[in-house]
Design a protein that fits this description.
- It is a single chain.
- The chain is an alpha/beta fold.
- It has one domain (7-232): Class I glutamine amidotransferase (GATase) domain (Rossmann fold), CATH 3.40.50.880.
- Helices cover 29% and strands 14% of the residues.
- The strands form two sheets. Strands 3-2-1-4-5-9-8 form a seven-stranded mixed β-sheet. It has a two-stranded parallel sheet with strand order 6-7.
- Strand 8 (204-207) and strand 9 (210-213) form a beta hairpin.
- Helix 1 (28-40) runs parallel beside helix 9.
- It starts with 6 loop residues before the first strand and ends with a helix.
Length: 234
Amino acid sequence: MAAAKKILVVVTNVGEYEKVGMRTGLWLGELTHFWDVAEQAGLPMDIASPLGGKIPLDPESLSHEFLAELGTERRYRDRKYMDLLENTKKISEVNLEDYDAIYLTGGHGVMFDFPQSGELEDLMARFYETERIVSTVCHGATGLLNVKLSNGDPLVKGKRVTGFSWPEEELANRADAVPYNLQEELKKLGADYSTAAKPFQPYVVEDGHLITGQNPSSARAVAEAVVNRLTTAA
């Protein structure tokens, strides 16, 4: 019997903004919503981060409003589950051959460490060029910005993608805190960037084995797309 296909989930190590004093980190729902779908499908997962170790949580993602969404509070109250974030694997320790898909979570922290991790960019390129699934949600798309394929082209060049939009950044009152405009950076690289009709609506774009979600409410739909690809592949 073949082993279950496995997913590598990548999270941030950064817990604060550089320009302002607000705290940030992993947006918890972007992990839990994806995890619930993949787990229900019987797909094992590991969690890694650029530096490994303990993962900071975005305090806003722990507000009652967001914990109430799609069972996030159940996960937050689960000591065994939350302990998965106490000692994550380093990206440098990841063996590509152990995984069939990679999923990059968001939270504003990723804007600072995902594009600065050469090891993550190299891993993403190898996932893509070996036709494994590459998926991101929200600010997780920042992990695509510096990924170049073996021909020298940006991974996102000519690809249909989405990610947290600038209007959403403004509505979230983070336009003055973020280091760059993700929407514009993707477009500069030649990506065919698109969004939902209204901010914060679930929205997922699939282009071959590249799957991207626009915002936190898209994490579950990204998971469903990833699971569909993994479970229907020959």
